[in-house]
Amino acid sequence: MKSLVCSFTTLCVIGNFLPAKGQELKEIRPNFVWFMAEDVSKHYLSLYNDGSYGAVTPNLEKLATEGIIFNNAYSNAPVSSAARTTLITGCYATRLGCSYHRRMEEVPLPKGVNMFPAYLRKAGYYTFNASKTDYNCILDETAWDVVGGKLCEWHNRPNKKKPFFLVRTNVLTHESNLLFPKSRLRETRTNNLPDNVFVHPYHPNTELFRYTYATFYDCIQDSDKELGKLMRMLEENGELDNTFIFYFGDNGGALPGTKGYTTEGGMQVPLVVYVPARWRDKIPLKIGTKVDGFVSFVDFGPTLLHLAGVDARQEMDGIPFLGTDISLKQLNERNEVYGYGDRFGELYAFNRTLRQGKFKYSRNFLSYHPKSLYSNYRYKQAAFCEWRELYEAGKLNAVQSRFFEPQKAEELYDLSIDPYETCNLADSPAYDSILKGLRKLLKSKMIGEHDLGLFPECEWLYYGKQSPTEFGLNSWTSIKKYSDIADLELGSFEEAETILRKVLNSTDPVERYWGVTVCAAFGDKASSLYDELDKLLNDSRGYVRSRAVIAMIRSQSRSVNVEDIMKQALLLSKSSAESLLILNDMTYLHDVLSYNFILRPTELLQSSNEIRNRLEYLNN
């Protein structure tokens, strides 16, 4: 395994040192603009659906006629802060300890790593952010000349000949614009007709859902107007011919089950890059080209550095996707992309994805959880609530219902014929070799990247928050061990039983945690481990106790005094992250197994916004 990790690292380092071709890049440097439309996946744009459905965006479509369209661009994470941290560092957030939305505690970047705009500044660029950072790590003070400036902030740079980098976050498409009451259907008409929208197959085709889609189309079109304004400003100021404009979504979304979930709708974003006139003879891609190769947020920073003639940093994980030396053939050979989801607000999840070619593999480490587990912000959307109500009333088909049912440990989709991930091929014998191959690749990727998700968040924060990356590097052996334990779920219980018995008696609390998690996934098959699980109801770690409760109930070993044990687990908690993990287990017990809890604030030793959201929900 070590040789695999070394080989992977070597490939990354070679890729990250791709030299910029031609001294002209250093003599005449282009400007860069990132126009980020919040919470937009490509599935809602007419541009990506041959004009047959989706929001019509004339300014973006004009941009596309003078640029490059990327058909397979990914945000790596399906939620803003984790995706933005990936974007601004060029590093996978899972190894930085930054894949959790939102951060429980601030963590530093690895030694020697800056947010990539710092390297542009050092090379002579004026950098400004208008006007959102939203990173999960400590802000790099060397990254920006201005944070919070106006759309045309480049006017204010001291030297007007200085090249600039502008990040503009457009909030008109943010999920918050869909948090309206159901009564709005009768009060406010949409510009896009609800009857003309295309409702994705995993959603119910109801009046409220059609209206919500139409509202979102309107939001996208409002955002497109600002894009047009920005393009005109650049042209009027004589900057357009030397400015690369990147239009993309900051993650997928924003309809129910997209943002915050590692589906294509949550992570596949539109990406259109306007190539300025001055650079069209230098970039070996024809204007109007559609690229099928895969790019992701981890690649964006290295790409800008490459175009600017600045060496990409060895510490970055991404590889440039535009430059004088990058051909269409090379781009279309890029056929892998990695995705991750951890905590979203108060909702703990642990999902990893790997797409290779037309196949997408998903590994769900809390497979007994439905994706629908309560999250305060998600269920502020009326369409989300209606979706759940229709499920509880038995009015959904199998595809629409799946969101509310336990996940499979593994999912496999052929996206060439199933772009909305409706038919899981993981159990099909015909795809067994593909499943096992992608499983092995993803496991190698997680271990090679020192994925901190294999630790409970509270554990790596307690022992490694001063340098999460270094902690992960030093914990390589443990990460591999935890991965092996978690993967016991993928085989039969008979094969796993002896190992699980040993793991449940381990002196390592994280081993015990993964042991009880796997037992919970096996359900009643794990009833033979009654003695070991019973012992863990008095574990020294609160988060192990709470997970043991779930394993005991699902294994149907015996009745458990659930409320008392969960409250005792909370009193053992050493941090807000641990309390939140226990409260997440309580939410599962409430939502899926119908247990009720009444919790007083005095029964918790920690507090945070996320904890308060959980308390409010459980108590009501």
TrEMBL record:
The modification 3-oxoalanine (Ser) is found at S80. Keywords: Hydrolase, Transferase. It comes from the Bacteria. One of its GO terms (molecular function) is transferase activity. Gene3D superfamilies: Alkaline Phosphatase, subunit A, Leucine-rich Repeat Variant. SUPFAM superfamilies: Alkaline phosphatase-like. Residues 30-310 form the Sulfatase N-terminal domain. The conversion to 3-oxoalanine (also known as C-formylglycine, FGly), of a serine or cysteine residue in prokaryotes and of a cysteine residue in eukaryotes, is critical for catalytic activity. Belongs to the sulfatase family. This is Sulfatase-like hydrolase/transferase. It comes from Bacteroides xylanisolvens.
